[in-house]
UniProtKB/TrEMBL annotation:
Feature: compositional bias, Basic residues: 104-115
Region of interest: Disordered: 98-131
Origin species: Phaeovulum vinaykumarii
Residues annotated as domain TfoX N-terminal: 21-93
Domain of life of the native organism: Bacteria
Protein name, UniProt field: Transcriptional regulator of competence genes, TfoX/Sxy family
Family annotation (Pfam families): TfoX_N
InterPro entries: TfoX_N
């Protein structure tokens, strides 16, 4: 079941004023939650799945662990009824923004050069064989 857009809007509303830049990116019917451009959580099936780092476990206390999707490693699951404690949720996002590593820089794309094709060239710009 995909996450409803209303749930994503509610999460953003709860994280308003968290002290870090929060943004959501839609992916495959679910959402990726970024805190200061770091992947902090996934929003899947209308639940928030937080990256399982030791600092988050210490901050949250008792947590429910579950995979956000089939085949994924367990994350800390926070259901929407716990999001209304905005101070706690905002503090968690600030903590994750501090402790998670910066994203790896992307390599710049290089333009692929193709051989020039002429009327006498075959596929891939290779000369045609004469018969």
């Amino acid at each position: 079941m995909a996450t409803r857009p209303e749930t994503a809007d509610f999460l953003l509303e709860c994280l308003d004023g968290a002290g870090v830049e929060i943004r959501l990116r839609r992916m495959f019917g679910e959402y990726c939650v970024y805190a200061d451009d770091k992947v902090a959580a996934l929003l899947c099936d209308d639940a928030l799945f937080v990256k399982p780092v030791p600092e988050a476990r210490a901050y949250l206390g008792s947590v429910t662990e579950a995979p956000p999707y089939d085949g994924a490693k367990p994350h800390f699951r926070l259901d929407p009824d716990t999001w209304e404690d905005r101070d706690r949720l905002g503090g968690l996002m600030r903590l994750l923004a501090q402790v998670l590593p910066a994203p790896k820089p992307r390599k710049p794309r290089t333009a692929k050069t193709r051989p020039q094709r002429t009327a006498s060239s075959g596929p891939g710009g290779k000369p045609r064989r004469s018969r």
